[in-house]
Structure formats: structure tokens, C-alpha cells
Task: structure prediction
Amino acid sequence: MYNGKKVALITGITGQDGSYLAELLREKDYFVRGIVRRASNPNTKRIDHLDIYDEKFGKTKDSPFYLLYADLSDGTSIRNALEKIEPDEIYNLGAQSHVGISFENPESTLNFNALGPLRILEAIRDMKLPTKFYQASSSEMFGISAPPQNENTPMLPQSPYGVSKLAAYHLTRLYRNAYGIFAANGILFNHESPRRGLNFVTRKITTGIADIVVGNKENISLGNLEAKRDWGFSKEYVEAMWRILQHEKPDDFVIATRETHDIKEFLDESFNLLGLNWQDYVKVSDNYKRPAEVPALLGDPSKAEKILGWQPKTKFKDLVSLMLAADLKLKMQEKGIVPIDSKEEDAYYLALGKELMSKK
Result:
């Protein structure tokens, strides 16, 4: 606490969830600090609109928002960050977050996703910090367990990513029970947005359609189209993260929509918005299929609804629509079809996309 305001530290702040969470916490008048890894070409575009205070405040306690360098694979850097910031709340969203890539990079996935949280928890324990810790757990931990899945469902992960998240989940519970740390897990089912990474299937579909509309490509290559997922809106899910740390005691919560749809349904909904048939544009490639698959995820968020008062608001069709409209707008701006400063409603870009495809 500084000047009567809470101080929050977010790892993975440059990602989809980190950027939405940073916005939410700033709206709640938190002092927000984010950890970034050093890179020759920093990927901060999701939060550049927030980083407006350095010139006035510098990286001081009075700055409403700033970034600092640290790395989840480097315990010393984590400890140095905690000593500097003295956060009231830590949101650990940093991870190697792609399931498919975890099969190719299992060691680094475990290092960041399992040992990273361990390094934070050890620092909290050793430094005796009164901070609250949030761990971003994943529905991939459930693996092949039959849906619907809740906090009591057996966890049978089917990827190095799922295994790494399950290890972090249990470490969080262990440090809570053994050392009395306020450490909580948010078991988030798939959550998407226009800020989703380009190599995730939902965004690959919507940006692929936008590329087809503006003439950048002719088709989209995907892997398993049968997988079923419970898709929600990331901007709403970060509200659940915050509520988890405001609860009177640390606990674990499933965050989901109670709806499941397979990838074919996502394709149907997105292509139909432009009057198109996805079978005319989608190719299935074995290159995108995984050694082991999770067939179906469907979350039961009853506990979060009852205890936290959290409920999802954005339905599947609305989520698909807002993601496709955002990518159409982006690609149309890049091509000069609409002005860079275009600020029309989503329906405008969807209608324009449909019109452009009708002329091909």
C-alpha cells in the first residue's frame, strides 16, 4: 500500500490478459507495475497506451504505471523486483502459453510455467511479504477428464503445457497450506479477444478471414477441427482474477462460460458473418495436429458465481463477431480500404467485408 492505494505487480503484462488486467487495475486506481523480459524488439503494443507516465514520474513509487525488467527463469531478478515494488497483489500471468509449442519446447515450458511461480512463491515466503498471489491456472490441466469440469474434477493433462500448469497449481496450494501465504488459483477456460496471439486457433481464424477479404491470402490451414472448447472473453475474465484476490480467503476457482463449441462451429459462425462457407477456404494440415489431444473442455463456474458474484456476459456469437470485426478493421486499415483513424461500429466492418467478398 502506498499513499492509500494498492500496488499490483503483473507478470506477463504484455500479453492479452496482462493488458486487460492492467487497464482494469488502473481504472480501480491501483499503482500498477509490470514485468517484461528484455528483448531486442519489445512486444509492448498491447500496453503502449498505458505507459504514459515515465516522463513525469520516472520509475518511482509515485508513478501510476511502469515496467521493469525481470525474468521468471531468474530468481534473483524476481526477488529484486519484489524488493523494489513491495506489491500488495501479484498476478502471475507470465508463461509459455501455447499448448502446441510446449511439445516442441517442453523444458523451457516447465521452466517458465512451473518453476517461475515457484520462484515467486519462494521469494514471498523467504521475504515474509504480506502480498496476495494469483496463479493463472488453465483448463488444460483437466486434459482427458470428461466434461463438465469443476474444481473437483480429476486433472489428467495431455501436454507439457498442461503438466507445467498443474505443477504450478499444486505449488500454489502447497505454499498456501504450508506457509499461510494468500495464494490462489484461477482455473481459466479458454478466453479470447482481439488481443489474442496470432498463433492461437481463434485468432488464426479471424485474422485469416480478414486476410482473405483484403486479398492477402486465399485460404487458412488448421489442424484438429473436432476439439471442443469453452470460449469466453478475456476482458471479462481478468475481472474474475481481481475478484479472486479480493475474496476474504485464498481459494481456487473455475472461470468459464458453461458453453462448449468445436472449431467447426467457430468456423461456421465467423464465415457466416460474411456470407461464406468455411469449407471453401479452410485446409486441414497434419502439421498443426498434436501428439496428444484434449477432446473437450466445458467449465462449471458455479463456485465463482456463488462466492465471487462473477458471471460471463459475452456469448459465443458475440465473441466471434467482435474478434472478426477487429481483424477486418486492422487489415482494411493496412490496405488503405478504410482510414487509419476509422472508428466505425463493428457492424460496419462486417458489412464492408461481406460486400468485398461478394465482388470476388
